[in-house]
From TrEMBL:
MF (Gene Ontology): bis(5'-nucleosyl)-tetraphosphatase (asymmetrical) activity
Name of this protein: Bis(5'-nucleosyl)-tetraphosphatase (Asymmetrical)
Stretches assigned to the HIT domain: 7-116
Species, as recorded: Candidatus Syntrophocurvum alkaliphilum
Top enzyme category: hydrolase
Active site: H102 (tele-amp-histidine intermediate)
Motif Histidine triad motif, residue range(s) on this chain: 100-104
Keywords: Hydrolase
Pfam families: HIT
Length: 116
């Protein structure tokens, strides 16, 4: 999917509404519209990268920062003590439905392993 008709690019440009929980120059974090856990936040780089499969070394700062932001949001939401999960779904078999790279921050319940 190209940038011009990408759902997350439209949220990033504020063309579409979302509940924004964090924003800086490179990253936006929003509440997932269809939460699968009491806390379900999407961390999305503002740069349109289709999936984890398409990242390059140029993206190392953004991808690294996302983990730090996830950890900070988890602390703010008091998830740290009990734990939480950060997930990237990549491609068809990985369960990706929106082709703009994003990470799910999930918390507030226990998660099984292996994932379904
Ligand atoms: P994935 O399946 O890993 O590509 O994740 C895409 C996620 O985006 C799903 O969890 C959806 O519920 C979520 N989603 C889809 N549309 C919206 C939207 N307009 N606002 C917030 N989250 C959305
Ligand atoms: Zn996009």
């Amino acid at each position: 999917m190209s940038e011009s008709n990408c759902l997350f690019c439209k949220i990033i440009s504020h063309e579409l509404d979302a509940k924004i929980v964090y924003e800086d120059e490179q990253v936006i974090a929003i509440e997932d519209i269809n939460p699968v856990a009491p806390v379900h936040i999407l961390l999305i780089p503002k740069k349109h990268i289709e999936s984890l499969d398409k990242v390059t070394e140029q993206d190392s700062v953004i991808v690294g920062n996302i983990q730090i932001i996830a950890s900070q949001i988890a602390k703010d939401l008091k998830l740290s003590e009990n734990g939480y999960r950060v997930v990237n779904n990549c491609g068809k078999l990985g369960g990706q439905t929106v082709y703009h790279i994003h990470y799910h921050l999930l918390g507030g319940r226990e998660f099984g392993w292996p994932p379904g």
